[in-house]
Amino acid sequence: MPPNPDTDAALMLRVKQGDGAAFAELVDKYKQPVMNFAWRMLRDATEAEDMAQNVFLQVHKSAHRYKVSARFSTWLFTIARNLCLNEIRRRSRHPADSMDAAGPEGDDQPARQYEDGRTFLPGDTLLHRELEQKIEQALAGLPEIQRTAIILCRKEEMSYEEIAVVVGCSVSATKSLIHRGRETLKQKLKPYLRTGEWRKAAK
């Protein structure tokens, strides 16, 4: 085990030994973060729910091979990213199926699931939601590897080292990805960050 034991890794080791309660605890803790990640990658609420189920199915299937070489969350989101990439590749081969699967609500349908825990006054809440929607749209336009790195940094608060493992890059390359992604987001969001109200909502 690492010097600072990862309690989630300890749970996963129990899963490896057949402990169903430990698996249920991990699913309960990570189902929503994995679903959020999948939605930001796939932009489809139904597919995000299905993807989260597939991720944990893969976790369970892979339990016998699990080793504590990194934080559990790093291993988990590596699986989630790989499965999302498989779906993105499938979509590129069958674009008509992807268009049929998209609901009439479009990309903004599940946005309410992804608000953070901060409290805003009614007017600020509206601005915050609008800004978050613009951020999500800008994120969707980034190259996949930049989008993944930004999501894991911004939403999952992973370290550069952990993100580097998930995206399969060096730490320096990961820092560069995040820097370039942030600069692109700043340029895309500049029109919405010119007023004091927008800046206040973005804090």
Which descriptors would you attach to this protein?
mainly alpha, disordered C terminus, Arc Repressor Mutant, subunit A, 203 residues, 2 domains, 10 helices, Rna Polymerase Sigma Factor, Chain: A, 0% strand
Plain-language structure description:
- By secondary structure, this protein is an all-alpha fold.
- The protein has 2 domains: 1-111, RNA polymerase sigma factor, region 2, helix turn helix motif (Rna Polymerase Sigma Factor, Chain: A), CATH 1.10.1740; 115-203, Winged helix-like DNA-binding domain superfamily/Winged helix DNA-binding domain (Arc Repressor Mutant, subunit A).
- 70% of the residues lie in helices and 0% in strands.
- The protein contains 10 helices and no strands.
- Helix 2 (20-42) crosses helix 4 (72-93) and helix 7 packs across helix 9.
- The longest helix is centred in the N-terminal third of the chain and has 23 residues, at 20-42.
- Residues 101-112, 114-123 and 196-203 have low confidence and may be disordered.
SSE string, helix = H, strand = E? HHHHHHHHHH
The count of β-strands is 0
Helix content: over 70%
The profile of the biggest β sheet is:
none
For the terminal residues, how far apart are their CA atoms?
A: 37 Å
- Name the CATH architecture of the largest domain: Orthogonal Bundle
Q: Could you name the CATH class of the largest domain? A: Mainly Alpha
